[in-house]
Amino acid sequence: MKNSRKRSKRVLASALTALFIAQQSMLLSVVASDITGVTNGGHGTFNINPEHASGNVGFRGYENFNLDQGDIANLIYHLNGVDLTTFINLVDNTININGLLNTVNKNGDFTNGKAIFVSPNGMIVGASGVLNVGSLGVYTPNSGYYNSAKRRLEAKTITADEVPTLIKSNGGGEITIDGKILSAGGVDLKGGQITVGQNAGVIGGINPEQMLALTSEKQANDLFNKLVNTDNINSGNKFISNEQGQINITSSKGTDIQGSVINYATGDDSKIYINNTGDNGIKIAGDVVNTKGKLDIHNNKGNLVISGNVKNDGTTRIWNSPYKVYSEVELDNGLTITGNVDTKGTLDIRNSGERGIDISGSIRHDGDAFITNGATPEIVTFGNTMGGLNVSGNIENTGNIVFLNTVDGVDGMNITGVVNAGETATFTNHGQAGLNVLEEGKIAATNVVMENTGEMGVNIDSKARINSTNDTTIINDSVGGVNVKGLVNAQNNVKVLSDNGNVVIGDDTENNNYITAGNNIDITVNKGSILNYGVIKTLLNAGGDLTMTV
User: Which among 437, 536, 431 is positioned nearest to 483, based on CA atoms?
Assistant: First the structure.
């Protein structure tokens, strides 16, 4: 009986061992490199030639393109004695890159060729994955376009002229970058949900002289760590190029940038363009840095949230603009900035989503800036149902800055943070809740202009401060009038004009000299009165003339 039990245990142990080995074999077969039709040339290196060419464009088709960690895939830009500029890879299943992928010439040296990967099932670049390329396009077309192109490739009848149609469609495949994309030129990602992971990077426009075929993950990491240090971006940075590099990220479900998206190109047409039309919106928790040129962040659906860092030298547009679906407008979204925007040139921030604009982070801009909430002449009116324009963070601007809240932004314009402008700061509100400098809100500029038609008037709280080194002008056309409880100080003139509402000055705090001007104070009220708050204080202090007209 005991021998029988021992034999049973040995049989069971043998069976479990066999099962374990089988499981490990299956696991290895899943993670090992599998590039259809390409064999390992030794030491985990896969040299990949096109199988068809049209002009200077090469093509190759695969069922699988899985590159394991530690392995290297070299795309060779040469076929039948002809050097190629573009290599298009059509892959049936999800593309998985966990090793190093290079673009090389026939001698194995880095070449500035464009690598295009096309799969309706998307791409995953793992944490150890690196695409080291001249330029890159990743596209997820619908299966109809893809299958048609694949059939023509198998028949060797596909031509370069068909590529624009193939890559134009977006079938919604996911693109996930947890590793690194290093490109001497542009990067074009088009898919459904596009994610750049926390420690990942999409870096384009790198000086080609700093690019070479990578042979180890350490080599790639060392280069990447230098590239993501954008504190030293300037004309002397060796990674900056004068090429026309562009990074385009186009999503039909959502874009989530937790890592770094950096463009080192400084050519006249260099830019970063991020566009989303899906419910998940655009989230930027990492860094988006464009060395010079245009930076467009354009969200058409879902929320636009910037909790990371956005940096550009040129023209920057941050737009949350819901688009029409048939007869309805997808309004239920907003624009939120809790992170940092650091820009030069022209800055244009717009929202037409129902939740309004909330800026609780910081904006530092060198040049002129425009911040707009609500429908504008370029956009249809949305029925006066939107949230307001709210600034609780810090805005530093060297030039002119214009804040506009249209009649759609019923929650008004509310400044509880700090706004400093080197030239004129203009605040225009048409939203019902009025133009309000609340709590400890502070405005400082060469000239300050405040204009309101919102029902609740202009309201300056007791702890609020408005300072100008030249003139301050406050204009109101609403029953809410102008209510000054805080301090308004101009080194030159102060002008207050209220139509259809009172001007009320004073409060029950220790404040005094509520309106101070180095030169003249001019207060005009039509269809209203000039009132104090019911306390005995010095309300007005004019170095020149004091004029009050009712």
Answer: 437
